[in-house]
Predict the 3D structure of the following.
Amino acid sequence: MKKILLCKETDERETRTALIPDDVKRLTAMGFEITAVKGTGAKSGFSDEDYEKAGAKLASSNEEGLKGKDIVLRILKPESVKGIEKGALHLSYLDPFNEKKLLGEMAKAGIQAVSLEMIPRTTLAQKMDVQSSQTSLAGYTAVVNAAARLPKILPMMVTPSGTINPARVFVIGVGVAGLQAIATAKRLGARVDAFDTRPVVEEQVKSLGASFVKIDLGEMGQTDQGYAKELTPEQVKKQQEAQAKVCERSDIVITTAKVFGRKAPRLIGKDVLDRMKPGAVVVDMAVSTGGNVEGSKLYEEVVRDNGVIIMSGDMLERQVPYDASKMLSGNFTAFLTHFYDKEKKELAVNLDDEIMKGCLLTKDGEIIHERFK
Ligand code: NAD
């Protein structure tokens, strides 16, 4: 397995590419043969010429390029399995909890489908972790977007004309996105509060110079993969009440609270939004999985009657496609390198490897992953 197709993303909103020319060069030197579909890097700052210079051949479309390729790289799940060779290793996000039909079709077509979201969160796999690489950029962008929309500045300013107090930012959910949001807001000079249901987070929040909002919700914790456990409805209610006061005094609220494979908890309701300051900005980064904020809309900005702005916080990494592609490309390259058999000079799908076992969902006509069988 060494013939790689780098697809062009077909969703108009997608701005990133799965592989940048520097990594094409690296992988080609190892022995991979890479074909890039024309225009793959057009929105992220990489021309077809850059890919050719790096050693890639060009194809004029995904359909044409798929012929004879045993490895397919793309970011978003395929629209259809048509044209993908039997036995090919297909790497992309797959949204496997919601895409049972697609998984079945991929299995039936004999494709070996890797789901990027299922790459295990181990130290060894960290460099392949697309969730982390993209989400941290999104956390940064959420704060930059909110700051640009806020009718205030973030830092304190003492001038002969008067003193401006620092803006207050509240980050709910301190995983990868939340940590980056805190760090960005601090760099811009804001006063930052944060909360997460995983108690281990308190130290991390403090080390970034932010305050941890203490809410006693009884038993909370995390899974062995570091994800939050789902709260009971009573716990969510208690959290909503305790957070309300912090929301009211905040200029920016960034919500990132997610529970892996489940609907996101609703944390800010209409009653709290009604009491927030006019012009305050809320960014809902869980908007695509149910939303932490009542009334948030995917890809849309909502301006409420009281002047509070709710921004969609989904896929914000697409606003920084140059860096987002660079990091994604690093993740794909790390994966391909890890499974490269130096003697055979090709990629080997090794199911004894914990990483492959964790993220390969279909093989030999079947769904093989325990969680999706
Ligand atoms: P995520 O996107 O699933 O969730 C975002 C955050 O929301 C999490 O911190 C979660 O605890 C929090 N949350 C859930 N319900 C909440 C609620 N009701 N109120 C407030 N917060 C709530 O999580 P993530 O960003 O992917 O990361 C989770 C953890 O995994 C982090 O500690 C991260 O550092 C760790 N991680 C480890 C690795 C690795 O070891 N390779 C890689 C990536 C992330």
